[in-house]
User: Fold these one by one.
Assistant:
Number 1:
Amino acid sequence: MNMPTSPVRRLSQDVLHFIFLANAEEAEIVPCSPQSSWYEPGSPLHPLITTRRSSQVCREWRQVILSSASLWGRLLDMDALQQEKPHWREEVLHRAGSTAPLWISRAAKINPHGPPPPAVMNFLFWILYTCWERIEILVLRIEVEDFIGWTSATQMMMQSAPALRRFTFLPPLFIDVDHRVLVPSMFSNNAPCLQEFVAPILHFESTSKFTSLRSLTTSFHRKFSTLTGVISCMPLLEELAVFPSPGPPSVHEFDLDQLLRSTPNITLPRLKDLLIQGTLPACLLLAKVIEPAAGCALNFEGDSGTGEVFSGTVLAALGRLFNKYFTAYFNFYHETDTDWTFHVGVTEFMVDVKLETGLDGDLPSSFQLSWENPSSSQGEEIIRALFFPSLAASSSSSSRESTNAPRLLTRFAAVESLSVWNRLLESVKPCVREIFAAFTGLRTLRGSKDDLSFLLLPPAPLITPAPNSNTDASSDNNSDHPPASTAPSPVFPKLHTLTWSHWALSTSDITAGVIPILQKRVEEAYKLRLLAFSGYGDLEFGLANFEVMMQEYVGPLVGRVRWRDGQDVVELWAEERAAGGLIPMDY
């Protein structure tokens, strides 16, 4: 760098100091789930390594960095302090001075399959013991046994934490299902600055009150009322994640109906992200009693844990809950140009519904129910309860509340752009077609061959098994499970653009998928304006044959066709078709 002429040279020391502090905030980028990776000790992304290298650029930068105790207080990054000799660890702590707030992060292992370095662990526990009241951010990734041993020996978790703003404790396996630790008088109920608490294995006691919390990650308590009591004292919560807990469920199926009526609501006016995993009764009850902010994204994963069929009361409650959250979510995020993604999955063991916008930063909403024993009929019952709550209401005792529940289905008519992805049992497809028929305002549709064929082509006729001579003919008429009706495919009268997602396009995809869909739209007087192929995969029959098929067979059925040729985008227009015109586009 040519220092006399460099623009960086003209920055004041205050601006430089602000930049160095911002670089140190990388210490807050710590994963809170097992799916995320932890940086290796030598990674340049560690703020301590970034700061040390910055101090070697020039004398002025070094002076600013070495003179800032608040900067070094943020750099107690244990992943970058795993040297055998203690000199560098002691030097970093010395540069932090005696009063600056401390950020302690990521006490991870160099070898994930071996024990943590003893010197690093001893240094960590020594800082926690001697500097507890200065700690502003504490992120621990250590074994549960080490954590329990430390808390038992020092009782530090029961001490006031006047500066603590963020606390995270995640064992290497994220949630150790064999442990749940109740910490009596956590932080002595005195952590006035605490905004984020991520520790699924640590349980508050019923008297805990941390009113400043913005983000809480915990797990279900043995007593459901303890969890709700703690949450009710956190009116500023913006994010809440509750994970399963080992042992008996906190809410049993036999008292769910009573609890749904008697448990008071909890108003959390700022809550925008709610994740709940666990037994179905506990998840259902917690989501039901919480009154979140408008547009709160719900991620619900309930496991019935039994092979029993869901009762009418539970189905009605699920329908109310689903429509309460998903309708509010839709209303909050929907604009005319919103690109929605909608997924419905039904297997023999699970129902999964997901709704999300195409905007970066927006949280998706998902609703998943699972059970142990295979049941092909259970999925359809649940889907109908979620999307057609008035039908489920007729079999429950709380029919009046169910009938008046908001219905997501009535809002789908406002959607103009939609991506679909479905995984369905054959028996459920007629019901799901009824759901998609609500998208009457749809103009743009994206999906794979299977999804688009499912929605836009007539359903295959049901094959009725031949009568058995040993079976009473009247038994079919009296069956408790009549065959599903073949609901017609949705019409989508305003649809004008179809995007065909693919990885490897074959001849059969064109002849058995694309052409029949386009022909059906023409026959119904709903000819498409644009068919776009969005895949980057191979064309199994070659580009030249693909272009011929587009011109001769596909082109006459649609206004224009668009596809990719390498990095180029090619379009075939109706008016150019007679001359074989292929128009390359610069996108």
Number 2:
Amino acid sequence: MSQSSPAGPGPSSSASVHRSIFGIDPIDEILTHIGGWAYTVTQGGTILSSPEYQTLDGSPPEAEIEIEAKIGRLIDTRTNRRLELPILNETILSDSSGIRFESNMSSDEHRHYNTMLNSLCPPDLTGQRPTIKYKRHQEVDYFYASSSRGEKVRVTKDFNTRRIKERGSVIKKRLANLEVYCPNRAFDYRISINLEIQAPEPSSSSTHDYERDKNRLSYTYPGIRIDLTQVKVDRPQPSQQHELEVELVPPTEGGTHSEDGIAWPFSLVSNTQLLFFLHRSYRLKVEDRICQMERQVVVDKIGQKGDHGRVGRSSVVVVAADVDSEGVMASSSGCATGLSCCS
């Protein structure tokens, strides 16, 4: 008489399933690399104390470290099309030569994000998350030549009153960029670290080189600000762009990003990734793959029964994850409208 082994816990079992035999989760290499990279670039948040940036009296300059993720697309300069690499998942590029980053999207994509972010602004009555605050800014940037190593002085003024904004005259010094390629998503992203150093406002007799109008909606959440901006530039020729950025903001007044340890790269990257995931085209790509897998299951079953008839839409039932306009995951039955795999 054979002895059967005890059945292991199935999907419906209440037995807990441990993540690993070591009792810890594997290291997220993307977050670890971004955190270490930013720590090195900013010298642990102390870069403003380095001799390179000290003022004449030896004190640090009046400046801020800016860390942000811009959403856009990596373009192969040889083909002038979006980059295509033989990889299957999100990847940090070690070499960005021959690649340019375009931080632009269509007006329809911009509108989609505007609607989605607006839906998150009503207060959360359950108390499970802080309230997201939003504010519109209409500003104009004027760019002047600077005697400081060829960098530009950016003067930001209120669009209507033309009064200079608080801390509105700065020199933006780029420290480093990190390009992240996302083949499964509609966009890639670039993480940038910059210094915004306060500069004297140019004299009224100075002539600016060019200007940039910004119509911006800012959505602020603890530690994070998401900016949706419509930008109009008059140089080299009049143009309009639609931009989406995720920027770190100090958790408290006078705080620094370095105080947050691993929390800040997780917050920056996870919020950027979720914006991708909630984008309509990414949802359709995921649902399309699920639809193809489900269709193959049906084809296999029909083949086993000897029925070689055509598999149509009514033959396939797909249960896929969907995201509604409020960003809530919901189960939806049936194929998403417009998916060719189920036609």
Number 3:
Amino acid sequence: MKLQTKIWAVTGAIMAVTLATHLTINYRDYEEFVQSEVLQDARNLRAVLMATRRVYHKQFLDSGLPVTDSTVGFLPAHSLSRISRDFPNWSKSGYLFNNVSDRPRNPANLADANELDAMAWFRLNPKAEERLAQITDSRGKPYFHFTAPIWIEPYCLGCHGDPKDAPSSIQANYKDSYGYELGQLRGVMSIKIPLEEVRKRTFGLWQQSLGQIVAGYGVLFLVLAMLLSRLIVRRIARLERAADKIAQGDYSARAAMRSNDELAQLGHSLDHMAEAIQTRDRTLQESEARFRIMAEQSSDWVWLIDAQGRHTYSNGKILHCLGLEPQDLFDIDPASLIHPDDRGLFRATFEKALAEQTGWHNVVLRWRHRDGSYRHLESSSTAVFDESGEFQGFQGADWDITERKEAEDQIVQLAFYDALTGLPNRRLLLDRLNQALVVGSRSQLYGAILFIDLDDFKTLNDSLGHDTGDLLLVDVARRLIACVREDDTVARLGGDEFIVLLEGISTEEEEAAARAEMVGDKILSRLNQPYHLHNRDWRSTPVSASPCSMAGTSPSRTCSNAPTWRCTRPRKPAATRCVSSTRSCKPG
């Protein structure tokens, strides 16, 4: 619900409650007014009746008329009851009146229960001049009951005092209602006013004023609603428009409130906030522009990622590193570009940095280039936080170190591998032999070393050239590798000398020797097969071997103590195999 609608609704509700309260109070005022008029009417009627009663009574006594059946009707007690019965023929007010007593001489003047209650009340309150109460008659009809006391006055004693003092006609016709004293309650003047008539008069008066009151409140409601709309709603709408523009990025928007009330103060605060944001945004844009210029001119791949690991910014260096445009990177899961073997490191690095909200340093990963190749990138980053200290992601840079890694791999290759055959050289062999001795000592496993030296190799070099000799060495290396397990080592010591290191053969020395002999037989069989060198077949002589011991104190001594195998040309191929336990050998 909009504010204007709320203001109209609240104003209308307040006006409705006020109107209802006003109408209720107004009705009660009219009710009191009508009741006061009714009370005054009753007083006036009582005055007329009492005056009539006194005059009639005195006149009757002064006339000297005897009390007979034909003259008794002139007495007030009789005449007022007859007047009361005839009154409805002249008035539609519904008023009932009579002078009643608890000891009347005229049965028509006998007080009913409500009138007897009134007489009892006056006896308890002798100074009271009147009483007004709500009653219900025997038929259930409600009335306002007005009563006034009739006290014994001196002239009353002539008929109601001592019977001896009463006129002879009174004495002759009435036997009771004597013995009253001066000031004693004789009866009451009873006037009954229908309550329904009072209500009709009240409602009629209230209804006459209802239209004017409702119309007045309607006009007041419209005036108040329009005034509130102008003073509050329009100004709030102005604030809302300014706030919406600011929220949409238009920091030049201003509320421009001119007064000094609370809404104007709010508008001034909004304007100051917009100005501060505009200044900060301008500074931020300038800073971001400088950052982008530096990032775009950088020789490194500069990037930003969010807390989910998605790239939100990348400079153009990504094209050189991975062959991708920056916008292509935003829709790609970075993990999909990482080499499968490096994805574990990638996720572990990111999750640790995310948990600690810190960056990482010098992490090398292989990224897939658009052409399908992989590039080695070294990455470093720092965490990014907003002004409120909320973590946003990471910013960092990657360096393409593919050429450096290739150079390092080449250096490693040259340092530990034979350049011609690609087999481990003497240095790597000694390192692996050292590991084999340690592992064998712990695991109680035997190993073996086979030394191989080709015969007539010098003759081949001299007759066919060194290129042909190199081809022979490469083929020999390939055949040796095919004869052993993947965990075993085939090394070239130099020239035509080769060593085969068999690890973890068996826990039994004899079984280890037997298995080593099987490998030796396999090697002899493969090496005795012809070699195709420059369209010529060459057959090497069988390989012969002599026993050796691996019980040296160090890998180098173990190798130096072992005899060298030489390829000879015996008429019957023969070979001895060197098998030694690594269980008791400890590297020096």
